[in-house]
Backbone:
């Protein structure tokens, strides 16, 4: 996982790699929450281009962060989920509350 | 039965990836489509994660993953010898979670039901839980 801050837009971009399961989720949650506090970012972009697998643990991570960011007055955007990840997202109905787009550039225009 | 395998591992969360990778590798014997393979991998990941999170609470125990192949049908059995489920019907309801504080989504059984053709859950309080699920792959 890599993170970058786009300061003038208060956006934290989280690039997820490989697989997001329960084992990984525990760490990811803590790191993102700490980084949101530290940077005063209010928007969160999940870049899923390089995420090849996600199970229901990922749903918890996304919805949990959505709740936090919503309180801060920002938004969450998902970039480029691969087919398996997209299916889990749609099964959970996440696409109804969180925008999904193809590129990071688009995502940054949407926040 | 044409083939079978059995794997036992400690209830550590870093074994989740190991277990679903083994399940997917076992399934490749049937030359599945990419979609079928990712469905199997996801369903097994959910069952194994449940066993690891809920099976033994904070104590240590073994989780067992069995795979069986019969024709184009593949079956996986995930079992633990942990505390068991008190109310299986409730546990299988979409969005029900026994661990909301861990941000568990309660979608595990829904994913298993959607991605596999059939799922059976047996549980004995204090004796453990067994999840059996099967899927018949498309002819290739």
Residues:
């Amino acid at each position: 996982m890599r993170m970058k801050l786009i300061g003038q837009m208060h956006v934290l971009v989280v690039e997820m790699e490989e697989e997001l399961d329960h084992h990984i989720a525990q760490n990811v949650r803590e790191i993102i929450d700490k980084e949101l506090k530290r940077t005063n970012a209010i928007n969160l972009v999940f870049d899923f281009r390089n995420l090849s697998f996600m199970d229901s643990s990922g749903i918890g991570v996304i919805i949990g962060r959505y709740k936090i960011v919503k309180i801060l007055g920002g938004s969450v955007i998902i970039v480029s989920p691969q087919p398996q990840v997209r299916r889990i997202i749609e099964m959970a109905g996440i696409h109804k509350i969180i925008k999904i787009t193809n590129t990071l550039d688009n995502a940054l225009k949407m926040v | 039965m044409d083939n079978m395998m059995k794997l036992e591992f400690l209830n550590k969360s870093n074994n989740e990836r190991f277990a679903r990778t083994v399940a997917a590798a076992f399934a490749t014997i049937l030359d599945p489509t990419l979609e079928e393979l990712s469905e199997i991998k996801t369903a097994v990941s959910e069952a194994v994660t449940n066993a690891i999170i809920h099976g033994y609470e904070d104590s240590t125990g073994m989780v067992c993953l069995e795979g069986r192949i019969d024709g184009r049908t593949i079956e996986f059995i995930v079992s633990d010898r942990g505390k068991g489920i008190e109310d299986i019907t409730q546990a299988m309801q979409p969005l029900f979670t026994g661990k909301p504080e861990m941000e568990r989504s309660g979608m595990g059984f829904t994913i298993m039901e959607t991605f596999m053709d059939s799922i059976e859950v047996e549980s004995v309080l204090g004796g453990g839980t067994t999840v059996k699920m099967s899927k018949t792959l498309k002819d290739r």
